[in-house]
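Subject: Re: docking follow-up (zinc ion)

Dear J.,

Thanks for your patience while I sorted out the input files. As discussed at Tuesday's group meeting, I've set up the holo structure prediction with zinc ion included as the bound ligand rather than trying to dock it afterwards. The sequence and the ligand SMILES I used are pasted below, so you can double-check that they match what you have on your end before we go further.
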Amino acid sequence: MAHEQTIRAAVSCSGVGLHSGAPVNLRILPAPARTGLVFRRTDLDGFQVEASGRNVARVSYATSLMKKGVLISTTEHLLSACIGAGIDNAIVELDNLELPILDGSARPFVEMIKKAGVRRQRKARTYLRMVREIELREGDKFIAVYPANSYSVSYSINFPHPQIGRQTFCVQLTNGSYLREIAPARTFGFLHEADAMRQQGLIRGASAENVIVLTRDDVLNPPLRFPDEFVRHKVLDLIGDLALIGRQILGSVVADRAGHAMHTALVSRILRDKSYWEETTLEDETSAPALASTASLSL
Ligand SMILES: [Zn+2]
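The structure tokens for the complex came back this morning:
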């Protein structure tokens, strides 16, 4: 039987927010079964914002949650790390409005979880098993989820840039490949868009240390961690955004040139209509769509 999991001990880090540039201290703490992933603003009397589709605030270049006017920005990399490492329950404390960007990937968060250790809890994990497909289209953007016995993500992107072009990447969240193939993939941005974005109050914390910077035809700060690091990062973002469903899913997710807005539109559609899924437990832990065992956490 696949069980819910949390971490064994509190772990912390510090950094700056990618968009706000604000300094922030972050701490991940163990939480009881059925808690889910919950953010807590320690600078606002511990105000709690659940990582749930019903708290999605705004989605453009990052996914932000808001509850009663309290913002938690750029949640997707940490949530992706939690799903990838099989963590169902945790409290994430932060003392500012945006999570730290760290190296631009989910790897530092995975390393924190690894350092804390993973603890299996008594409650059986409940999954959302998709029983009907959902397909969403917007212009040439596409996202869909199909019934399947495990959780997989396939993503395609197509950027007219000599270092990117068309890339497709598929990952199964069962076999440890998330940690090796997805978690290290960093966020990326185009140098020629940077000024306009800064004027919109974005990327104030961006640097060559936390973003792959693309010039018109090259990478400003090589080396890449993978030749197709760009599409791998999109997979990372999508897994983080789908964490807002609040349960692990059993389904095959396919995305083509989607983005945070379409990712979270899929979350809303799933949460809104219960006829698309049923709740189930998994007898066979090896088919659980997460890296259930601590053994698989050795990178
Ligand atoms: Zn990202």
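A couple of observations from a first look. The chain has six helices and 19 strands. The longest strand covers residues 151-159.

Let me know if you'd like me to rerun anything.

Best regards,
T.
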